[in-house]
Amino acid sequence: QPVIISLLPLKEAVRTSMVSRSWTTLWRFHGDLCFNEPVDVDSNTDDNPADQVNGTGTNDQSTNQCGTKITRAKFIETVNSVIQQHSGIGINKFSISCDLHKEDSHHLDRWIRFAASSKAKIIDFDLKLFDYPVEEAPHFPLEALDAQGSSFVQSLSLAGASIKPSSGICRFTVLRRLVLNSVQIFGDFPGLLAKCSRLEDLEIIRCSGVDDLIVPHKLDKLQKLLIARTDVQMVVIHAADLAHFEYEGRLIPIVLHGCSKLEKATIAFDTTNPSALAHAFNVIPSISPVKILIVRAIISTYAQVTLFFFLLAYLIILETWCYCQCHLICSCHVSVPGAAIKTTGHVYASEAYDLSNCCLLSRVK
């Protein structure tokens, strides 16, 4: 019976309590507690578009808002009821995705305490900010996950929240994956990363509060690093096992020490600065051993296209894609020292400034 329950989604596992008395409490040991607030507030209005319009020809916002509040209240009630009845034993994943309002923030504290006390291995909170900006996002207490002196979390994903790492937090000794999306970061974030010695996957997306992402300590286990739309001034990380690196944002200094195992790098600079291409190749020397390099840049002149292939000649790589935006059509052949490389394509763009076709280079065997 416990094996059957563990294979069912939480909703179906709860329904099995109706099978017999012996099944009544089995769902309370379910290992994955995943709660997703319904997207559609009122399915009836979706079936009939006319129901969404009142007599004046405008959306009936008051009705929709009332339905939204009822749905949210029911969702919160369901989550609280489940965690109250659950044994809190053997939880593998605790996940919540919902629109959280200011007046409901106290429920967040209760959910975090439950996830911490149950020692969930995977924790995922996606709080879709609805009525307040990111700067006022609800606080997620990292110290709650470390209340017993040794962290149990292997994967932590936060969206629409704020965190404040402090020196009092002990090491996250088993944390392997950290994803922050639209998170306001206060305090010593590099210090937090330095305590994650087993971190393998780090993703920072649309976050704020970190000026310089400098981690002086080695993250020897880090294999994937993604930094996108985050307003940082500099990135300096020691990562000997880094295999995948992706950056999207402003033109900044990026230093990845000891990346001899780098297999794929994606770099997209939000700028029309002609030096962006040179920056990708020269200012980021750690990408030189990469096998697959994807560079997204705006190329507006023939000189910039020539510069790209000139810089490419200094890399020994297997495949390269370059997304360009230009008026010219050209076909190029590049010989790389130490490796025979040929082009199998061309770079072009239409007068409408669409992105060009790929320029694919592959090693000749």
UniProtKB/TrEMBL annotation:
Region feature (Disordered): 40-64
Q: Which UniProt keywords apply?
A: Membrane, Transmembrane, Transmembrane helix
* Stored InterPro entries: At1g61320/At1g61330-like, F-box-like_dom_sf, LRR_At1g61320_AtMIF1, LRR_dom_sf
User: Where does the source fall among the domains of life?
Assistant: Eukaryota
Q: Where is the composition biased (Polar residues)?
A: 51-64
Cite the SUPFAM superfamilies for this sequence.
Answer: F-box domain (SSF81383), RNI-like (SSF52047)
Spans of biased composition, class Acidic residues?
40-49
Source organism of the structure = Aegilops tauschii subsp. strangulata (Goatgrass)
Q: Which residues cross the membrane?
A: 293-317
Give residue ranges for domain At1g61320/AtMIF1 LRR: 82-323
Protein name per the record? At1g61320/AtMIF1 LRR domain-containing protein
